[in-house]
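User: I'm preparing a small set of examples for a lab meeting where we compare how different chains pack in three dimensions. I only have the primary sequence for this one, and I'd like the structure in token form so I can line it up with the others. Please keep the answer compact; I'll paste it straight into my notes.
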Amino acid sequence: MSTIAFLGLGAMGSRMARRLIEGGRTLVVWNRSPQPVAGLAELGARVAASPREAAEAADLVVSIVTDDEAARTVWLEPQAGAAQGLRAGAVAVEMSTVTPAWIAELGAAVKAHGATLVDAPVAGSLPAVEAGQLLVLMGGDAAAAEKVKEALAPLAAGFRHLGRSGRGVRFKLALNHLLGAQVALMAEVLSGLAADGFDEKAAVEALAGVPVVSPAAANYGRQMAAGQGERQFGVDLMAKDLRYALAAGAAKGVEAPIGRAALGVFERASQAGLGEANASSVRKLYP
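Assistant: Understood. Below is the structure token output for the 287-residue chain.
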């Protein structure tokens, strides 16, 4: 199988890269800070000095970073950006949760280098990565999406091709719009029950047993009731995704009062010093 360039080794990216190596894939990796690189090199990954160098060695180039700004630097930095190193016929894969506008910009740059872009963000948190149970949401050329599916198979329980370029990230933003609203509401609901004397752990289990509560909401509720601090999906990242989702909707004239309210909760949590904490920590905003 051809070499995969993997750019961005944060909490998600480092685990994804490790699982790909363990799944028999050949990787060349790059990360802005050196700490995550060492462990992957010990597993057999080649380490590149820049995104461009990594892309030059690969037929499939994957990026998973924080936001539009970080992705633009990785791909389009004039001398060291990955787009400069793309081979003709290569597939560029943007797995970051970014905006459809960035995907359109990146797609044009990738095409200018004779390559094809697939946007392929994932649904699932750190435990899902480690178990190979992600859902990959793809937008773009169908034949290129099939190549992505084959190359990244060790990561996922499922791949869903949603249509034209940008549809993968747009759907991912919709998912996190829904998730953010549920997490914020769960914190509010548990606060109300606690004020009436309910035991929060027992209340969450009772809520989890009724159809109106999603498994994701129940999971975050359990984290809130337990005071769990382990970071799986940070407050600042949730706020970023909600901002992107609301902006994408606003561009089409869609109102989102519930999304705006949820964003306000996560922004308050960030201002309270919880930006790097798990999203469940919004429960701390309430008595």
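A couple of notes for your slides: The chain has two domains: 4-164, 170-285. The beta strands are 4-7, 27-30, 46-47, 60-63, 91-94, 116-119, 122-123, 134-140, 156-161.

User: Perfect, thanks.
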